[in-house]
Structures are given as C-alpha cells and as structure tokens.
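Pasting as-is:
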Amino acid sequence: MSTINIAYPMPCSLAQSREVIDELLNDLEEKYQIHHNSIGDNHYQLKGSGIKGEIQLDHQELKISAQLNFMMMAFKPIIEKEIHRQLDKSFAHLS
C-alpha cells in the first residue's frame, strides 16, 4: 500500500470550499467511479477501485489522505499532481 497525504490551504470560506469539494467529488464519481460518503459537514470518505481515502475541511486547510493498492502505487505521482491541478483550477475563481 502507498499513501497520499495532501494539505491544501483554504483560499475561501468553509461554505464555498464545501461547494467546490462537492462538485469535485461528483466529478470523481462520474469520471472514475470513486464514490463518496459525507460524514458530517466537513468530512468525506472516498472509495473506488484501488483507492480508499478521506477529505477533511476546516477553516485553514483541506486535507486529503488516501491509500492506494498495489496496482495503483505506480500512479501515485500522477494522482497527486492531478489532485493539485484540480484543486488549483477549482479554487482559482474564489481566491
């Protein structure tokens, strides 16, 4: 197993961040079949083929942690880069 840990500074309010994250999670589900469950207002669980993780929001940062199975380990740098790219793109209009 390999772990992804990302801490992303929050460029906007918590409410705006939740809206952005909800859109991103719906996009992940549609494109990659990575399903999510909301655990309270600011905590999400993710599960898909080869990946299991969570997203937590607070007033200062967004935290993403995920476990990749053996088959997905080779894609870790690509996945991390794509996460950062999507977050930058999604939050660009709010900062």
